Amino acid sequence: MSGRLQNRVCLITGSTGIGAATARLAALEGASVFVVSRDEDSCRALEEEIGCGSHVAELTRADEVAVAVESCLSRRGRIDALFNVAGVSGRSFGDGPIHECAEAGWDTTMETNVKSVFLMSRAVIRHMLEQPVGQNGLRGAILNMASVLAFSPEPKFFATHAYAASKSAIIGLTRAMAAYYAPDRIRVNAIAPGLTRTPMSQRAQQNLELLEFIKTKQPLSEDLIEPKDVALAAVFLLGDGARNITGEVMSVDAGWSMS
Fold first, then answer.
1. Which of 167, 123, 130 is nearest to 148 (CA)?
2. 1 pLDDT more than 70
3. What secondary structure does DSSP assign to the chain, as a single string?
């Protein structure tokens, strides 16, 4: 590894899938990693595997988010990077096409995917604004988890309109934050993966018709994307190699949006 995140404190929400893959890679790149998730078992497993810090919290509750961020600060002293990964598919709650979408599907999806990003970003940016500029000339970097479905819909297999709306909201929030906080030397970007092999995509992984479809929809992989491939892009966007990049949405979709 090149040490791209050497001596940086990286706070990552989510302890499975892309969050876990990014935590592993960030640690290899020299970061002091701190993971926040509501899943205690996977938090503890990551602690044992890579020696990161962790805190169990419900990310849609402002009080629990505040305690989680303070826990990171008390143990690490500062926060150089935040990766907002945690989120859900609302399908099991009733997400679907708008004419079929249940209120519970809409509310759960929007709250979990968007409110968590709002609360974590608010808490972390309040601290970043007070911490001194680092040797790289920046106060910090934030990366938000969007989705290719925010701008490249797929009506047959992924007609989950609340999910698409939540990820579109994250892109809008990312760009608004990037514009506002650039003078404060805080970068804000988003990453938009295609269909990735994570716990959230278990339904897709068991659908043989969908897997055949993905062979042509994601031609670069002819399969689901591996979490480590998204993590590689995430670590780049959080590191100094992207120090002059803000307000961008990087697609890591194996050609989904081009096919």
1. 167
2. no
3. ---TTTT-EEEEE-SSHHHHHHHHHHHHTT-EEEEEES-HHHHHHHHHHH--EEEE--TT-HHHHHHHHHHHHHHHS---EEEE------GGGT--STTT--HHHHHHHHIIIIIHHHHHHHHHHHHHTTSPP-TTS-SEEEEEE--GGGTS--TTT---HHHHHHHHHHHHHHHHHHHHHGGGTEEEEEEEE-SB-SGGGHHHHT-HHHHHHHHHHSTTTTSPBPHHHHHHHHHHHHSGGGTT--S-EEEESTTGGG-
Rounded mean pLDDT of 14-34?
Answer: 97
**Dihedral pair phi/psi, residue 150, rounded to 5°:** -70, -25
Domain locations along the chain: 9-253
Confidence label for 117 from pLDDT (cuts 50, 70 and 90): very high
Closest CA to 88 of 71, 64, 113: 113
In the predicted model, is pLDDT for residue 2 greater than 80? no
31 pLDDT band, cuts 50/70/90, is: very high
Q: Is CATH 3.30.565.10 correct for 9-253?
A: no
Task: List C-alpha distances in Å: 252 to 24, 127, 154, 228, 231.
Answer: 19, 30, 16, 11, 10
* Catalytic residue IDs: 163
With a cut of 80, say whether residue 173 has pLDDT above it: yes
Does the structure show a pLDDT above 70 at 102?
A: yes
Q: Which residue has the tokens 């640690």?
A: 27
pLDDT in tens, 39-93: 999 999 999 999 999 999 999 999 999 999 999 999 999 999 999 999 999 999 9
